[in-house]
TrEMBL record:
The protein's name: DNA repair protein RAD51 homolog 4
Gene name as annotated: rad51d
SMART domains, alphabetized: AAA
Keywords: ATP-binding, DNA damage, DNA recombination, DNA repair, DNA-binding, Nucleotide-binding, Nucleus
Keyword Secreted annotated: no
GO CC, any one term: chromosome, telomeric region
Subunit structure: Part of the BCDX2 complex consisting of RAD51B, RAD51C, RAD51D and XRCC2; the complex has a ring-like structure arranged into a flat disc around a central channel. In the absence of DNA, the BCDX2 subcomplex XRCC2:RAD51D formed a multimeric ring structure; in the presence of single-stranded DNA it formed a filamentous structure with the ssDNA. Interacts with SWSAP1 and ZSWIM7; involved in homologous recombination repair. Interacts with BLM; required for stimulation of BLM activity by the BCDX2 subcomplex XRCC2:RAD51D.
Family: Belongs to the RecA family. RAD51 subfamily.
Amino acid sequence: MNYVFVSSHLFYCTITFHFFPTYKIVYFSSHKHNSHMKKDSSFTDCISSFRTLSLTLVAINRVLLAQYASFPINGADLYDELLSSTAILSTGNESLDKLLDSGLYTGEVTELIGSPGSGKTQVCLGVAANVACELKRNVVYIDSTGGLSASRLLEIVKSKVSTAEQQLDALRRIYVTEVFDIFSMLKVLQTLRTGGFPESPSGSSSLKAVIVDSVRAVLLPVIGGNQIEGLSLMMQLAGELRMISRDFCVAVLVTNHVIRESNGAVKPGLGRSWSHVPRTRILLQHVNSEMTTQNGLRRATLLKSSRQPCQISEEFCLGSWNHHKVVKEAKEDSIPEEAH
């Protein structure tokens, strides 16, 4: 028998998806000696089918390129897009806002580092309360250390809004989830990235801050010893945080520990690979003062920033979030502590 094979060309898309559709149109004769007596109509149908398949492939190619391929954009358009999508979220603390050039920027990862007891969790609670109370935006708080105190969060919220209704509304905007391993952390972040964002009453997503306290707690068990997959998991976590911040215009705040070197200097934990993940890094330290124990005085030092000079520092009190414009109301108008 004689066979006629017609195959389509290789199909390639710029997003690294490869398609290899090979359409074979087979025409054969029933006998060797009458192979030259093919019907013209059958051959015409064969060519027509091939043309249809070719046009279909071209159409699919155009759709995929339009949807996934990268296109050049000039600097002016890119800058306008940045301005329209970037928001600055106040932390609720003037000293921190000054270091951060007005506050936390959406589309970026900001890192707080410090030794145990330096106040990282207190700052995270203050930021969450301020975004929920003052900006009236949703916050996702991922707690991997079990250090979140509901009573402390309520205390900060009470200092910002006066009535029980306002306090409940603010608390409803803070979504808390506990994770204690890297895989649970990745699952939560992937859920957020794929559309699991908290919805506002109007139906549109109003999430503006994701707080992770802390990345060290879930990464340390997998990057120690001979676990070679630890670095891969760390980079996967970094990628998820970056994509959430960039694609959904969300400010991401994470906490990390510090390592003290032999000369007494401190550096961020998790090594060199992680050091490139946050756009901004702040070191929290105790202030050597006799009043430190009484007033919770801390020094915040800017270690990494693309907008401010590094190594500048500010001092502030951890209780400063409690002294923000308190409106005195009757005690019964606020949520009782024991209810939480």
